[in-house]
Write a structure and sequence with these properties.
3 helices; 7 strands; five-stranded mixed β-sheet; Helix Hairpins; Chitinase A, domain 3
């Protein structure tokens, strides 16, 4: 099986979620199932069915996280040599040449990408255009709405 890159921060967040699911959420739903069972007829017991559905969601998420973590190649960019280039895990500040707007992205693994937090997948068009570039370099991102030209303003290894 092929390993997938993941930042240490992303792996730590998944591990924390996994611990919460196993130590808090799973026992709570098991207790809810037992309580609902005590109410009698299971065929018409909405609490029981809701608890069983929640149990399925929790168990599914546990399996998903365990699978992701087992295939993760954890990369801690803070411990890497700062080469001055955009690499996996770096935070990059860009200037849109056409609009003069600045945007900052952190390049992360597919599983931890979240555009609301400005975390983009290493496989995204923007990240692919940036990898290997240095501060001051310009790059063109091929986007569905047309090509976007960026200048790399700053690269942080945080």
């Amino acid at each position: 099986m092929q390993k997938h890159p993941m930042t240490k921060e992303g792996a730590d967040a998944l591990q924390a979620e996994l611990t919460k699911l196993k130590k808090e959420d799973r026992p709570a739903v098991i207790e809810a199932i037992a309580t609902a069972r005590d109410h009698g007829d299971l065929k018409e017991n909405a609490e029981y069915h809701a608890a069983r559905e929640m149990q399925g969601l929790i168990e599914g998420r546990i399996q998903q996280i365990e699978s992701v973590l087992s295939l993760a190649q954890i990369i801690d960019v803070t411990k890497m040599t700062h080469c001055g280039k955009v690499i996996f895990g770096t935070t990059v500040t860009l200037l849109n040449i056409d609009t003069d707007e600045e945007v900052t992205y952190k390049i992360v693994g597919h599983e931890e990408a979240d555009i609301k937090q400005n975390k983009i997948s290493v496989n995204s068009p923007v990240a692919r255009a940036l990898i290997g570039k240095e501060e001051g370099d310009e790059c063109v991102v091929m986007a569905p709405a047309g090509n976007i030209e960026y200048e790399i303003i700053k690269i942080d290894y945080i």
